[in-house]
């Protein structure tokens, strides 16, 4: 019997697997798609995320981020990172780097998709494997979360995310958050000649129509588009622990970042010999509780609450 099965081989799942392997645990990742996978993503790493990647031995390129600028037609507010920079990096590059690190540690990545499991007092079985723990890192629309009954009804209005990259040199080392009546645009430099622009809104319209609500931003994005437009509870039950990267926040500020995932992964090794979920480390909820509150505060300020 191995220690951990990780359902999902995205950044959250791979970070979990890497931390487990570094702690001396036997871990297998089960993922249906070949890496790297491109998704709508803010592509900004906060300083804590950069430090977490460094601790895992993962190196990424991208562009340094000094903080976040909040901008509307009349006002600008700047928040600089105090101690170290963040990093803007393509999701595909991050995913590839994490995959390479996992391979270097000898972590098996099995092709498959886990939608349910069978568990008893000794462990859990899924995808033909038996382990002490199953970590659900299978994304925002997690089938395992639904199967485990961990999902809660979401009474907030739905928000929609769209992202596209542009061939243009970054004009700032800060993530820019532009506000309008219909939503927000998040500009993240991810290379010397590449910026990503993600839009979050509660209104279902095309990307270009949303972008037109930010005329100052449009003037800077005169160059050709570099990529097509992409669109986008209880902490555990028995022997199954969640590691959903973006399941509790409907704001992209900070932009989608793997910071919480490595933090949760760090909490897994002490549970290696835990007989039940009751032994889940008390620190685990703290890895994301503050972030969720901050997200709620930011989205409450949005013209389109969520």
TrEMBL record:
InterPro entries in UniProt: FAD-bd, FAD/NAD-bd_sf, Geranylgeranyl_reductase
MF terms (GO), sorted A to Z: FAD binding
A family per Pfam: FAD_binding_3
Domain FAD-binding span(s) in chain numbering: 2-154
Protein name: Flavin-dependent dehydrogenase
